[in-house]
Amino acid sequence: MKKLLGIIVLGLLFSGNAYADYGGWIDMIVNSKEHKYCGDLARSMTSNKFKQSDIYYECRADIDIQQSIDKDFEKWKKNNK
What we know:
The protein is mostly helical. The chain has helices at 2-13, 25-30, 32-45, 49-79. The termini are far apart.
């Protein structure tokens, strides 16, 4: 019984949005500032749930790209002193 319950819990944890790039429960905890910002932005721009999802994912992708560029630039500055 414990094994079955464990499988169900793990299945629910890693299914759907929880295992997706953005929007899962784990992501909301780890990246709460980005999640809140993009969620608020999406809700303020439209009431259409499908468009909100598109805006949210675009916002998160933009943040990820900017963070990657910032890390690469810091690494370049460190290597080229």
